[in-house]
Amino acid sequence: MRIPRLEQVDLEPLWLEDIDHRTAMRRHLLFALLDGHPIALLHPEHLAEGLNQLARMGLEFPLYQADPESFERLRNKFRELQTTNEFERMETPTEELIEAEADLLEFIQSAQDLLSGEASAPVIKLVNSLFFQAIKKGASDIHIESHERRGEVRLRIDGALKKHIELDRKITQLVINRIKVISSLDISEKRLPQDGRTQVSISGKTLDVRVSILPTYHGERVVMRILMQSEHIPSLEELGFDPELTRAFYRLLTHSHGMLLVTGPTGSGKSTTLHSFLQHIASPDRNIITIEDPVEYNAENINQIQVNEKVGLTFAAGLRSILRQDPDVVMVGEIRDQETARIAIQAALTGHLMLSTLHTNDATSSLTRLMDMGVQNYLLASTLLGVLAQRLTRKLCPACKAPAPMDPRQIREAGLDPTGRYFRAVGCPECDFTGYRGRQAVGELFIIDDRVKIMLDKGLNDHEIREQMKSAGLRTISDRLRELLEAGVTSYEEAVRVGLMDG
Fold first, then answer.
1. Do the Cβ atoms of 50 and 29 come closer than 8 Å?
2. Intra-chain end-to-end CA distance of the chain, in Å
3. For residue range 28-70, what is the model confidence (pLDDT) as tens digits?
4. In the list 39, 129, 447, 448, which could disulfide-bond 98, CB 3.0-4.6 Å?
5. Which parts of the chain register pLDDT below 50?
């Protein structure tokens, strides 16, 4: 019997409710429309298996075979249809959660039907439980990685990645497919990066999750950022800034115009601090508009715009439009280029309070960065109100931290009190054996007062200004880390990592 062969075709799936498509797909048999007519499609390397399955089903369709690539393309379309259909039919058991990590491992090892399909209840339960445990542990990101023989889930807790569980390679792909479905991403596209968003309901709480999928050598890699709602945005006091700095910043926020900057490396909590400022000053008589990339906090009392460079909505273009919307307060996620810097300075000059971030290591070097972007020093002097440089340092777990003798050389180099009592990280069940629980913001606030304006007029560089400000009493991040170390809040290793030696 000669079966006609189709080459390089892109067929549409024929989904019939009374056919067991899952079994047919496993036996390399698919149903499609060819020129509007139903056909049965076979894989050229599995003809006998496909024909036997068709005979068992008792169906009569015109038979065709397709090249492996075309067959696989159609099979991916079927998987997408099957996952979506079953997902829609099924009441998602969000309350059915595996709460303990050990129970989750046992569930993965014992649930054979995990491999029966992307939309099967065990896969949904597994993905829900990953979200639940991430929230319970206070994770900001969930990483799912595909390696050669296995998959791995890691959680970012207090800024550090920690291994959560290992998965079978096949289960990893099912988990990734499930995440694609709930994020409205293309389940059949495995060669290109994809970005999406989803909402997850866990134990009565709704979470926004940002999803990024990247193809790697051994399969796809997923990073999910758990985004916070406005009611969870901490105040400056809750972030851990010391009271003196908090009071000074609240005074700056009473200005009706001018620019406030928050600086620091990636992951130092700049966005959280900016949103904390916005929540502090938000009121019904103020029009607050932000442009962010991406929108990380969903706040109800402010208007938020998401950057979309594909359609030309950049920070600069969005900022121009915002200024025509009669705003009182404007927040720009980041000043990245000359054009954004110029418009932001103009906005601050013309009666708007402008908040933004810069990637610089300390508060004073933001002056040089803005000058490098073409901002004149006299404009800086008249618009910039203050710059907060910040870092996040992990706090030692109070349940297990232990006294640690310090090397006299380290004490000298760090300028610490030789008679002080210092602690190290140990690890216990309370802190998930990391030795740390929670993080605290440390910052230095550089206020642009008359002295700084005179220094700018004289053309002093940021290093000279910094040295003069330190002599005049500027307390740096390094000074604040020294205080935390001497108070036993953090360890020497963590303080050095964050910037104890940076001066």
1. yes
2. 82
3. 899 998 888 899 999 998 888 888 888 888 888 899 999 988 8
4. 129
5. 86-95, 117-119
